[in-house]
Write a structure and sequence with these properties.
The complex is a heterodimer of chains A (333) and B (347).
Chain A: H1 2-6, H2 9-27, H3 34-43, H4 45-60, H5 67-85, H6 89-114, H7 118-137, H8 147-154, E1 156-161, E2 167-171, H9 173-190, H10 192-202, H11 204-209, H12 214-240, H13 252-261, H14 273-292, H15 299-332
Antiparallel strand pairs in A: 1-2
Chain B: H1 11-27, H2 29-32, H3 35-59, H4 68-87, H5 97-124, H6 129-148, E1 153-154, H7 158-165, E2 167-168, E3 171-172, H8 173-191, H9 193-203, H10 205-210, H11 215-241, E4 243-244, H12 252-262, H13 274-293, H14 299-338
Chain lengths: 333, 347
């Protein structure tokens, strides 16, 4: 049991999180407070939700970079639509889900039928979605966003008053993130669809021969990525309460890095929801910690980069020494 | 997933290129063929070209260099810091020729160092290039931000400005540089042991190892070469923008990867020629120029680039289908002629 845990990426990331958390808290006791943690979780909800989708694509054996563009389009269109025609937050979520799934399915169809690497297709659709959004909207900001989003973003559970007079509490956003994680876990671990994703990602030819519908699996994955991107977009607009048409794009690599640190393989067939959660938590904590330690946010990228290199080097080292040991055993026998 | 739609010939690319030129000629002949327009295109091509060629080099073994943008900015930042150190209290824009060359060499050395680091991680720890360069790129981007504090730093001497803006016999100097470098790269890839080894490692690393190729040394040299292209990009950018910043050319990363695919480079390694890349880059530039000349929204360029890839994928798909059908037809004919049981076609 212990030995098995030692070979898991999640264990290392977990202890890294604990170590960094203790260090930050030692230097600034504000870290381990309800106010700080709930705020930090809230600001990383969007990344966390999109990370679940990225995990699915990584398990399928590729890298999607278009989900930020999908979220950007969904955010703009849904807010614009709500401004023009009204509607409540449930309607907004529904519209976001439908539009997100639609854009995701387009990716899935192109990837399946043209048989090209996921990254190439999604770079192309990234450019198309984002380019057209900018052309059509002319890059205009939407400032007076409907009050439904503001109300939704301001809901606080366990609301309390802080010392300086502001109120704080648990926002709904991290709960949506949690729901996305649970949904992802359920699909991957408890449904046929989830098993099919692992099968196609592990060995597509084998999966096809045992009768798995690869088209349906692909469409499901990319539809799900689009769905999560849509949900993430509503979460994002509810937090920042304005729409800037280029604020989400550019986050792709950070999301992918978080999922990869959590142990997902870029070759497909391997990855867990827990690892994805831990990867995003690590990033959230680093970002928050730099602020609490009064270190300039310029250092964020440096620390993230260093942690990515360290994490991949450790797991590569493990794999290499394991391979070496295997050879040894065989010779002795 | 194996790409059946491998772009082995440049035929579809040339068709797109000719179609674009004809389209431009039909829509706006007076301005499109103006000397000024052609020259301005020649100024713009080298930056995206050097980035794309750098990524292409990394793709030949099935890798990718996601750190190329931060390496580019790092080169520029090291160059201006060296200039500042050497100039002392004097203005960096008055730096003498010797100091400028030393600073450029320093920038180049920095890029080579980064390339070697990526190469060593790929070669010795056997980490996928995607992850190595993602990590190194993120780290380096952070370093760039930290050492410049996010500011734009300007003031380059005339010598460096000339690399980006100079004219020789009426041809922009960066474009001449681009042509020389392309010919050199083409020679390096197809006529030297290193180049051929790259393709071999890309198509079958195990076979390459058994052919007595030092795979590790190939990987390291490959990423150094890729980073040299980042340095070249940086030299042209410094000249044209007269400044450096931590996040210049951020949006070019995805475009450069697109250019590689358009140019026929196989992302899984083993295939890709400089010639195809040059045509692909010119196509991307033509679209951009065309959108500008027609006074359309510049973001339309981005959307059009995406559409071109999808169209290319679709034509390749249709062509592959037609080839398949023809082959199936041939097989049927043969079977009928020889009157044997139909051989099941490999699908």
């Amino acid at each position: 049991m212990l030995k098995k845990l030692l070979h898991k990426n999640e264990t290392y990331v977990f202890f890294l999180i604990i170590a960094i958390g203790v260090f930050i808290n030692f230097n600034n006791p504000l870290f381990f407070t309800f106010e700080n943690i709930s705020g930090s979780l809230k600001s990383y909800s969007m990344v966390g939700i999109m990370a679940v989708g990225t995990l699915f694509v990584l398990i399928l054996g590729g890298t999607d970079v278009s989900f930020t563009a999908i979220a950007q389009v969904v955010e703009y269109v849904v807010v614009w639509f709500t401004m023009a025609h009204g509607g409540n937050i449930y309607m907004a979520f529904l519209e976001a889900a439908v539009l997100g799934i639609f854009l995701g399915i387009i990716n899935g169809l192109i990837i399946h039928y043209f048989k090209v690497p996921i990254i190439i297709v999604t770079i192309a659709t990234f450019n198309i979605y984002f380019g057209l959004l900018y052309v059509i909207t002319q890059g205009k900001l939407l400032n007076n966003i409907p009050v439904v989003f503001k109300d939704f973003g301001n809901v606080l559970l366990f609301a309390q008053t802080s010392k300086i007079g502001g109120t704080y509490g648990l926002s709904l956003m991290p709960l949506i993130w949690l729901a996305a994680l649970l949904l992802g876990w359920f699909i991957l671990r408890k449904t046929m669809a989830g098993r099919n994703i692992f099968a196609v990602g592990g060995n597509e030819v084998a999966a096809e021969r045992i009768g798995i519908a690869t088209l349906r699996t692909r469409l499901f994955v990319f539809g799900f990525v689009g769905f999560l991107a849509g949900i993430a977009a509503i979460v994002h607009v509810s937090i920042v309460q304005s729409v800037v048409p280029n604020i989400i794009v550019g986050k792709e690599l950070e999301v992918i890095a978080a999922v990869v640190i959590g142990g997902a393989s870029i070759f497909g067939g391997k990855g867990t929801i827990l690892g994805t959660l831990l990867g995003v938590l690590l990033f959230a904590m680093l970002n928050n910690g730099l602020t609490l330690l009064r270190i300039s946010s310029y250092w964020y990228s440096v620390t993230i980069g260093a942690i990515i290199i360290a994490a991949i080097s450790v797991s590569a080292w493990q794999k290499l020494s394991k391979a070496r040991n295997n050879v040894k055993v065989r010779i002795e026998e | 997933m194996k790409p059946t739609a491998k772009l082995k010939s440049n035929r579809s690319l040339l068709i797109i290129l000719v179609a674009l030129v004809l389209l431009m000629a039909a829509l706006n002949p007076s301005r499109f063929f103006a000397v000024g327009n052609v020259i301005s295109m020649a100024y713009q091509i080298p930056i995206i070209a050097f980035l794309s060629l750098g990524i292409m080099v990394s793709m030949l073994t099935g890798g990718i260099n996601l750190a190329i943008i931060s390496t580019t900015n790092f080169t520029g930042i090291i160059t201006i810091f060296l200039l500042k150190a050497m100039a002392g209290t004097a203005a960096t824009s008055d730096a003498p020729l010797l100091a400028s060359s030393v600073a450029l060499l320093g920038g180049l050395a920095a890029a080579v160092g980064i390339g070697a680091l990526c190469g060593v991680l790929v070669a010795y720890l056997e980490i996928p290039a995607f992850l190595v360069t993602l990590g190194v790129g993120t780290l380096l981007n952070g370093v760039n931000i930290v050492i410049t504090k996010g500011y734009t730093i300007s003031g380059f001497p005339q010598f460096i400005l000339d690399i980006g803006n100079g004219l020789v016999l009426g041809i922009p100097l960066p474009f001449i540089l681009f042509i020389i470098v392309s010919i050199f790269l083409s020679f390096l890839l197809s006529r030297t042991v290193f180049g051929v080894s790259l393709y071999l490692v890309g198509s079958n690393p195990i076979a390459a190892r058994f052919s007595n190729i030092n795979i590790r040394s190939i990987y390291i040299r490959q990423y150094i070469l890729s980073s040299v292209f980042a340095a070249l990009t940086s030299f042209v950018m410094m000249g044209q923008l007269n400044s450096v910043k931590a996040n210049y050319a951020d949006s070019y990363l995805l475009v450069a990867i697109l250019a590689c695919f358009l140019g026929g480079v196989d992302p899984f390694g083993g295939f890709g020629k400089t010639g195809g890349m040059v045509i692909a880059i010119i196509i991307l530039q033509l679209v951009s120029t065309g959108v500008n000349l027609l006074r359309l929204d510049p973001f339309l360029t981005q959307a059009m680039w995406g559409f071109i890839i999808i169209i290319l994928l679709a034509t390749n798909f249709v062509r592959a289908r037609m080839r398949e059908r023809r082959r199936l037809g041939d097989i049927k004919k043969e079977n009928r002629a020889e009157e044997i049981a139909p051989a099941s076609p490999r699908l």
